[in-house]
Amino acid sequence: MRIAVLLTIVLGLLGAFIAAAVLIPRHKAGSVQLPSSEVRDYQGQKLSSINDFEENSINGPQYVDKDTYRLEISGLVANPGSYTYDQIVDNHQHYQKVVALNCVEGWSVNILWEGVLVQDLIDEAQPSPDARVLIFHAADGYTTSLPIEYFRDNNIIMAYKMNGVTIPPERGFPFMLVAESKWGYKWAKWITGIEFSSDISYKGYWEDRGYSNSGDLGSNFIQ
Ligand SMILES: Nc1nc2c(c(=O)[nH]1)N[C@H]1C(S)=C(S)[C@@H](COP(=O)(O)O)O[C@H]1N2
Ligand SMILES: [Mo]
Q1: CA distance 23 to 29
Q2: CATH number for 137
Q3: Which helix (H) or strand (E) holds 23?
Q4: Which residue of 136, 188, 196, 210 lies most exposed, with the fewest beta carbons within 10 A?
Q5: Mutate which of 182, 185, 194 to test ligand 1's pocket (most atoms within 8 Å of Cβ)?
Q6: What is the pTM of this model?
Q7: Does some domain include residue 22?
Q8: Burial 95-134 (b: 16+ CB within 10 A, else e)
Q9: Residue 133's domain spans which residues?
């Protein structure tokens, strides 16, 4: 009789443990990112909002799938490659800076960017001496180019966050080039490839339509 009671208790407890193990949700590896609100003040500076951008992309917003995404490094390099989102974000030093984007249409936004240094990607790619420009390719077919020395000289970053939140699809997820001191059309969004080229007269989407190839702020943007 005693044994029967003991057995019932033991079996009952065992059943409860098994049920708990199956039913209670467990933590997956890594951390779960909860939606956070964007930073609007940074070191005494007022920042613009993500919502202050005007939507004027050539083919509308692009929705890039993080799991199948690859960044293609190609052209005049010893070490071409195809990198996942995590390989870019997790395997590189992170940098932050506040930089204003100015569109030729007359609006601007001041944003806190976080990203990886393009020079780190250049160093990994090991460009040949013939490589003079980097051509950025994007998910919507957009391209734009900048001289290879521009990135080191200006500590240019390729951003994955703006105002402390992951860049939303409409604003260029997964990566946007923070082309400091250049007009907005040099700030490639939805970057899918960086091609190293010798063609210093290469013209991107807007450059080919008459906008200056240097894209320098302050210079006349119409050639
Ligand atoms: N892939 C891609 N990147 C792009 C563009 C675009 O159409 N496609 N437009 C450029 C222009 S003209 C500006 S001003 C900035 C900011 O664009 P947004 O306000 O549409 O985000 O993105 C730049 N990068
Ligand atoms: Mo623009």
Answers
A1: 18
A2: 3.90.420.10
A3: helix 2-23
A4: 210
A5: 185
A6: 0.85
A7: no
A8: bebebebbbbeeeebbbbbbbbbbbbbbeebebeeebbbb
A9: 69-209
Under DSSP, is residue 171 helix (H, G, I), strand (E, B) or coil?
A: helix
Say how many domains are in the chain. Answer: 1
The percent of residues above 90 in pLDDT, for the chain, comes to 80
- Residue type at 195 in one-letter notation: E
Q: What is the DSSP string of 96-144?
A: EEEEEEE-TTS-EEEEEEEEEEHHHHHHHH-B-TT--EEEEEETTS-EE
Q: Is 136 in the pocket of ligand 1 (CB under 6 A)?
A: no
The helix/strand/coil state of 146 is strand
Residue 28 has pLDDT above 70, yes or no: no
Rounded to whole angstroms, the Cα distance separating 54 from 48 reads: 12
Nearest CA residue ID for atom 10, ligand 1: 185
CB atoms within 10 A of CB 92: 16
Closest CA to 197 of 145, 138, 156, 143: 145
Distance 18 CA to ligand 1 centre (A): 54
In a domain, 107, yes or no: yes
* Cβ–Cβ under 8 Å, residues 64 and 173: yes
The dihedrals phi and psi of 188, each to the nearest 5 degrees, come to -55, 130
Regarding the beta carbon of 188 and ligand 1, being less than 6 Å apart is answered: yes
In this predicted model, what pLDDT tens digit does every residue of 157-209 receive, in sequence order? 999 999 999 999 999 999 999 999 999 999 999 999 999 999 999 999 999 99
